[in-house]
Amino acid sequence: METNNLINRIRREDERYARITKTFQIVYWAFVVIYLVLIIMHIATKSPVAEIAGSLCFLLGMIVFAILFRIYYFEYKSVDYGQPTLEMLKKAAHRYKPFQGKLWFAFIAVLLVGTGLSLNGPFADFVQTQILFWSSMTVALIIGLIVWWIRYKPLRDDMLRMIREIEEETS
Amino acid sequence: MKRDEKEEQFNQIVTENSERIRRVCSYYSANQHDQQEIFQEVLIHIWKGLERFRGESAMGTWIYRIAVNTAITHTGRVRRHLKVSMYTDTQRLSSLLDDDALEEERLKEKQLNALQSELNTLSIIDKILISLMLEELSTKQMADIIGITEPNVRVKIHRIKTELKRKLSGKNYGNE
Description:
The complex is a heterodimer of chains A (about 170) and B (about 180). Chain A has about 170 residues and is mainly alpha-helical. Chain A is built from 5 helices and no strands. Chain B has helices at about 5-25, 30-50, 60-80, 90-95, 105-120, 125-135, 140-145, 150-170.
């Protein structure tokens, strides 16, 4: 029966999503555990404070990334097609916005990882490490923006146009 | 909600509404394969949304919302741009042209074909409204589905009808 096949398909899809999310969660939380162990080892071996602080920065960065990933995952999972069209379009247009408030938390996480990188190395390499790190981050941001510009901006523009069309003639 | 209960409710919804969902899907694509894809996607969204459905709107309205929202976003994903086309049979279209001036059957058929072409020049929101009109929904239901007020729906429908009539009356359906 068609409906039963569909239910099985949905079930498989749900399981696949659950597996992917679980894998990501495991990776992030594994990093968290690794850095936690490293911090403990640094403290036990009386390592310099800078190294402990560096690992702590990594740890905090990974925690922020893990939480952000969870928030994004639930946001996308809970897209509700049963809402009125106007409401759904507004929420979708917000989701496709390149710079959202949540991005500040990603920036904080990147900042923490960048700081951790420098604190764990010799101070002479500080500038070099930072230049390399922020250059890579800038390239990653530009690539992300190009992908957004090509794939999502046209969709978002259409959504905004539809929202305008729906909202006009409201008198 | 337990899985068995959910499956039972879902099966009931599909049995009761599959025809209307298929019809809405058919308005947005002439291609059978696309229609089937949209239909399946609508069912997936119904399944996923079942637990969120609190009965704040009527079940029928909720299903139409899902069908319309899925259809308009599906076309967007396929073509990257939201470009909705409308396809429907002339019998349903005739409900849009209940004008006294358009009496003769032969002319009416030509007009309906012209109307089909004109529908595809409308904006997406106008196409959505037309598809809901063809489903013979009330302005209240249309307002609930789109998320605007009833007077707003009436204004839009009046404008669409006036515009369509103006365009069609400007065409020559002579004896060619």
